[in-house]
Design brief:
By secondary structure, the protein is α/β, with parallel strands linked by helices. It has one domain: Aldolase class I (TIM Barrel), CATH 3.20.20.70. Strands 1-2-3-4-5-6-7-8 form an 8-stranded parallel β-barrel, surrounded by 5 helices. Helix 9 links the parallel strand 7 and strand 8. The longest helix has 18 residues. It is globular, with a radius of gyration of 17 Å. The protein binds 1,3-dihydroxyacetonephosphate. The site of 1,3-dihydroxyacetonephosphate has 15 residues, from strand 8.
């Protein structure tokens, strides 16, 4: 069985010093879980250098929350793959709902970022998810298909081992979000898996669930076969809480058929 994937996106929280103490604590709390869990943390840009120097032996994989697809250029305020590569990062998160809906990034832009991240040797974590309005119209699966088909256009077979997908329904994310029900999440994950199978037959791309994951719903989600891990925000931002959450779901994941 594949290792359980558990990660958190720190969004615009935690200064470099706070990120360092968080990672130190998380690293020591989870030391015995290395063989069972792939743990990853996605800090803010200014905290990345310190984060890389805090984590030992890749005990926690580290990623960036966004990336410009070009290596360099006149793009004030943007960060390039070469800059992230030099830091020694593992992952680039692409198309988080806040990037899509607060900063209006398009599927075509996410696609350029995915291709660039993969070409530069990163694991690309593409986030997909429908809005509340799209859900109400009953077009969640159509939206997911589109985000995957455009976002992953041009990805090659050899790159698939460095591709992760996160299903994060927009309406489920953040303080005002409502977590997806077990049934709803299961159906969307099966749909995402079917689209991935159509695009890349035989692939083993993991699909994580994110959006108000917490100690009350994490178990219900991780028992679903189509859910390969959890991508958590608020509930993981205290190292002790994240450690507890991981230990809560790990036995259920291991017990899956
Ligand atoms: P919350 O768990 O705080 O809803 O955030 C999820 C998320 O956005 C992970 O990328």
């Amino acid at each position: 069985m594949k290792k359980l994937l558990m990660g958190t996106n720190l969004k615009m929280y935690k200064t470099p010093a706070q990120t360092e103490s968080y990672l130190c604590a998380l690293q020591s709390l989870t030391e015995d879980l290395r063989n069972d869990v792939t743990l990853f943390v996605i800090p803010s840009y200014p905290a990345l250098d310190r984060a890389v120097n805090t984590v030992r032996d890749k005990a926690i994989l580290l990623g960036a929350q966004n990336m410009h697809p070009e290596e360099q250029g006149q793009f004030t305020g943007e960060v390039s793959p070469l800059m992230l590569k030099e830091l020694g990062l593992d992952i680039v998160e692409i198309g988080h709902s806040e990037r899509r809906h607060v900063f209006h990034e398009t599927d075509a832009e996410e696609n350029k970022k995915v291709l660039s991240a993969l070409a530069h040797g990163f694991t690309a974590l593409l986030c997909v998810g429908e809005t509340a309005e799209q859900k109400a119209y009953g077009i969640a699966d159509e939206v997911l298909s589109m985000q995957l088909k455009i976002g992953l256009n041009g990805v090659t077979k050899t790159q698939l081992s460095r591709l992760w997908v996160a299903y994060e329904p927009v309406w489920a994310i953040g303080v005002n979000g409502t977590p997806a029900s077990q049934q709803y999440a299961k159906e969307r994950h099966l749909h995402i898996k079917a689209v991935l199978e159509m695009l890349f037959p035989g692939n083993e791309v993991p699909v994580l669930y994110g959006g108000s994951v917490n100690p009350d719903n994490a178990r219900d989600l991780i028992v679903q076969n189509g859910i390969d891990g959890l991508f958590t925000g608020r509930a993981a931002w205290e190292a002790e809480n994240f450690n507890k959450l991981i230990r809560q779901v790990l036995p259920l994941y291991k017990g899956r058929a």
